[in-house]
Amino acid sequence: MNIIACVKQVPDTETLIKVKPDGSGIVEDGIKWVMNPYDEFGVEEALKLKEKLGGDVTIVSVGPARAMETIRTALAMGAEKGIHIDDPSLNGADAYTTAQALAAAIKGLPCDIIFCGQRAIDGDVGQVGSVLADMLGLPSVTLVTKLEIAGTAVKAQKAIEGATVTIETSLPCVITTQKGLNEPRYASLPGIMKAKKKPVDVKNAAAIGVSAAVKAKVAKTVPPPARAPGKILQGDDPALKAQELVKLLREEAKVI
Amino acid sequence: MAKGVWIVAEVRDGAYRKVSFEIASAARKLADELGDEVCAVLCGSGIEGKAAELGKYGVDKVYVADNAALEPYTTDAHAAAVAKIVKEKAPAILLLGASVQGKDLSARLVGKLATGLATDCTALKIEGGKLVAVRPMYAGKCFGEVAFEAAPAMATLRPNVFPIVENAKAGAVEKFDPALDAGQLKTKVAEIAKDTSGKIELTEANIIVSGGRGMKGPENFPLLEELAKVLGAAVGASRAAVDAGWRPATDQVGQTGKTVSPNLYIACGISGAIQHLAGMSSSKFIVAINKDPEAPIFQRADYGIVDDLFKVVPEITTAAKKLLA
User: Fold this and answer.
1) How far is CA A207 from CA A87, A129, B221, in A?
2) Considering CB atoms only, which of B75, B119, B255 is closest to A127?
3) What average pLDDT does this structure show over B303-321?
4) Strand partners, B267
5) How many CB pairs under 8 A join A and B?
């Protein structure tokens, strides 16, 4: 099986995000960079599929030079090779542009299935997997928590509000991965050593024949809206404080 | 020149999901500012009779695709149908709900319409006659103002944030042929297993009572379930409680769980880590009950009680029962 897993390097979730004073983005100094947690589920599922059905796993990522480290992590987990798309015109661009770049890199490759994390935890945009699928003319199933593949038949489960849906489709397709799909493995030390020698093609926009056509851009990055300071209910008697709370919720907040 | 503020309404089991009225109201507000028209796209089977209802929320015209292949929802069928009518009429703006379906459908439309999409927006504005969509990024640690270089400018709106405003307009119904080609439809719904526990869906709840590590164990959650019952609330959990195996993953509120925007969120024994706040910071009112006065949740809470939740929560239940009796 020819399996592809797309990954993105993002700031660690513990990162204290500082907005640049000119609103042009966030301060990147001192950020600890990691593989997007949702992409880990994709890499893991790719590796499990390879272990079950044979084949190989190719990692594809759009990002600046530092993103290579994330590709190496995926290789250390067990993937065979990588493609690193690094171009200032593509890095940090919108979902359309990122998907376009991924599609251009993937189009020529033998491909049975593509895994993408359901969203990246920096932008929280959650579109690239679906756009990539559309650009490649493939079906997509998003937010997948369970996957069964038999031949070319695909059965994928996802949660919708108040229900679990089972969707049937066929290979090749794009699956966007959700928490609960699997438990991503840690890269072993031997894996990390082997990863250093695995091949990673680095390509720029020209090499994949793409020129950025951004459709939506973050014109301004701002701190979160301020919330009016709250009040701590005073006193030592839990019952009295509870009663005061209920009164406030009814009379002041008007939510009960 | 692209004109018109459009929405894609969402129905389930033959009824509109609440977010449909929220996006209609938001569209009406934008359209009034632009001097424009609001149109809705409605796709389903046996759905034509429901179309005019959208008029109540400011929709001038409803384009309906009524076809067996459109029920239940599949990405392929709905994306094909919506793309067809949108390409034909070329609206300037297209809004959907940031529900599971809305996010899935809108993302699939990005490629088909070669346009931009702002996901999970909490505010919309018009600047220089064009849409600017405001949305949380980095788990809500900062916000982005998104501008668009293509039409229609698409945005999905976070449920329960935009007010529903009744503003009766024509709601004139026009059917269109989605021209679905069976060869294009590559996904099929094999099964929909409804959650029959009677639990209120967190993302749709008006009130949520939520428990974290401070609950100390699964055996203590009935305390919250009691309060929830009195308030007509859903019960949520922090990642700590879910990872400890005390509550199911579907109850998790937070960055890697659900994003909720209830009118009232009561956090019990939850410290308020940034990843948890990411999931509930859109709540209109936040109450925090925690023994630790330094817990970060108190910085976000509208009302805080620094005390033992095992003493306080039962008292809240008692007081609420009296009030609501």
Assistant:
1) 10, 22, 57
2) B119
3) 97
4) B210, B288
5) 257
Cβ contacts of A20 on chain B, cutoff 8 Å: none
What's the pLDDT tens digit per position in A159-186?
Answer: 999 999 999 999 999 999 999 999 999 9
CATH 3.40.50.1220 residue window(s) in chain B:
202-324
CATH code that applies to domain B202-324: 3.40.50.1220
3.40.50.80, 3.40.50.720, 3.40.50.620, 3.40.50.150: which CATH number matches B5-184?
Answer: 3.40.50.620
Pairing, β B207-211 against β B264-268: parallel
pLDDT at B196: 86
pLDDT of residue A92: 85
Domain with CATH 3.40.50.620 in chain B: 5-184
CB contact under 8 A, B249 and A180: yes
Distance CA B257, CA A191 (A): 31
Provide, as residue numbers in chain A, all residues whose Cβ is less than 8 Å from the Cβ of B17. 161
Please write the tens of the pLDDT for every residue from B247-302: 999 999 999 899 999 999 999 999 999 899 999 999 999 999 999 999 999 999 99
What is the distance between the alpha carbons of residues B89 and B153, in angstroms, rounded to a whole number?
A: 14
% of chain A with per-residue pLDDT over 90? 94
Chain A residues close to B301, C-beta within 8 Å: 230
Q: What is the mean pLDDT of residues B127-153?
A: 96
Instruction: Identify the closest residue of chain A to B304 by CA–CA distance.
Output: A232
- The reported pLDDT for the residue numbered A229 is 87
Bridge pairing between strands A216-222 and B142-148: antiparallel
CA gap A113, B46 in Å, rounded? 35
Tell me the pLDDT tens digit for each residue of A102-116.
Answer: 999 999 899 999 999
- Which runs of E-coded beta strand occur in A38-162? 56-62, 81-85, 113-117, 140-150, 153-160
Domains along chain A with CATH numbers: 2-208 (3.40.50.620), 229-256 (no CATH)
